[in-house]
Amino acid sequence: EQILPAILRSHADFQDARIRSFMWTSTDTTNDHTSANDKKTALREHAHLRRIVDDSIASSNLHRSEAAWNCLVHSPYLQHATRCTDFLDGEPITSAQILPAFRPLFNSNEQAPPTASLSNASSASGQTRLSSYTSSVHKMVDFALVLRPEASLQRLID
């Protein structure tokens, strides 16, 4: 509820029957100067997110690789989402893997094999793929949320 800025209610992108009245934040018009700044900021933010959505649509239509999606869509979105938090960053970690102890179990209560085992197993038969092993549980991790505590908290942690 109340996730859309009321100041964008008249924007063409939001003239859709799927957008319900409860989705808008409450309107506060106490200060015209603040309201003008808020609208300018909201329009700029919306334009930025709209570009990410457009890149997402183009990436889908062009069947881009996962690496391209990470560069063009996921990374900009994560950076946008964390930009207002001084203590939180999105960090690309595309060569990281999920440690076996943290991989979810399959329905058979078995863990996915390491990535190296998977590539050997899937190449054993040119036409046979182990579909249970091609699920996301064994895949690499693309991004991490990194906590960057303030100096006083960091001293307590250290």
Description:
It is built from 4 helices and 2 strands. With 158 residues, it is α+β, with helices and mostly antiparallel strands. It has a domain at 6-85. Strands 1-2 form a two-stranded antiparallel ribbon. Helix 1 (32-61) packs antiparallel against helix 2 (66-82). The longest helix is centred in the N-terminal third of the chain and has 30 residues, at 32-61. It starts with 31 loop residues before the first helix and ends with a helix. Residues 116-134 have low confidence and may be disordered.
List keywords for this structure.
158 residues; two-stranded antiparallel sheet; 4 helices
Number of strands: 2
Q: How would you write the strand order of the largest sheet?
A: 1-2
Q: What proportion strand?
A: 5-15%
Structural class: alpha+beta
Radius of gyration using CA atoms only:
22 Å
Give the number of helices.
4
The topology string of helices and strands comes to HHEHEH
User: Distance between the terminal alpha carbons, to the nearest Å?
Assistant: 39 Å
> What overall geometry do the principal axes of the alpha carbons give?
extended
Q: Largest sheet, described in full?
A: 2 strands, antiparallel
Helix content: 25-40%
Summarize the structure.
By secondary structure, this protein is α+β, with helices and mostly antiparallel strands.
